[in-house]
Design a protein that fits this description.
The chain is an alpha/beta fold. It folds into 2 domains: 84 residues, Helix Hairpins; 203 residues, Pyruvate Kinase, Chain: A, domain 1 (3-Layer(aba) Sandwich). The chain contains 6 helices and 5 strands, in the order αβαβαβαββαα. It has a 5-stranded mixed sheet with strand order 3-2-1-4-5, sandwiched between helices. Helix 2 links the parallel strand 1 and strand 2.
Length: 315
Amino acid sequence: LLVSVLVSVGVWCFDLCAVVTPIQIKSTIKSSAFIFAAAKSRRMMNRVQGAKPYGEKMEEILAGLEHLSASADSPLLEKKDNPQKYLLVVVTANRGLCGGYNSNVLKLARFRIAELQQQGKDVEVQVIGKKGASYFKFIKVPVERVYTDIDDTFTLSRSYELGRYLMDRFQAKGCDVIEVVSTVYYSSATQLPEVKQMLPIGQETTASRSHMRASTGTGSEEQKPEEGYRQNMIFEPDAETIIEKLLPHLLQTVLFRSLLEAVTAEQIYRRVAMKAANDAAGDMTKSLTQLYNRKRQASITQELAEIVSGADAIA
């Protein structure tokens, strides 16, 4: 009789273990993914912090160059009164398992595309990352180019190549406005998807970032430019030389920083997502283990009670 009790309990326990074991395996995988994402996010945050002072000063100079458009002739500063052709570069990830990182950027990109199309604009979409390419293919939005080699290992030279291509495209009148839709890194707790104008160069190129620094308090009083400093800029040797030599480098630096921050935000999102998944798996395993123990004890008690009752009845 005791053997039959153990067999019936063992069958039930085996069914529950068949549920618990895969959860424990997935928890181990998520834990490993969390460790990798945490290490990558720390490395990327160090890269962002290292490039921050140089990048912010470059963006400050870049915003000031808007006032050269009246005295200097450069296609990078040329603005049309009624631009018709827009090029959107949407920055996503090559992989998933990073929470709402991809969905937030793609939602903003789709909203921006719909907004421009309602205004009668021609919109061309280029995508960085496989997830973005798959999404636009699913919603049947044509994608002209897909870049899949920009991830946490991308280099400065690769971003310069992309920046050079965008500048050549703009100078060849292939588009009137180039905008980048990406996730901007402000701190380890704040990463927001934004649309930023890259070309033509002007205050719009850095306006959203400057506003966010002011609203979140990440900037300092010493970092704020003095009122009217742009109008009083003196350029040596002359404005034309500055534009010819420095302007492409400034733009490529801003693009590099945008890509760097987007990749950093991706790793932070992935770290948070893997931590949440690991915690959820742990809670589920604990709950099922407690259920397993309660059911096992209740089943044994019930079987023994039935055996004792049967023995008493026979006696």
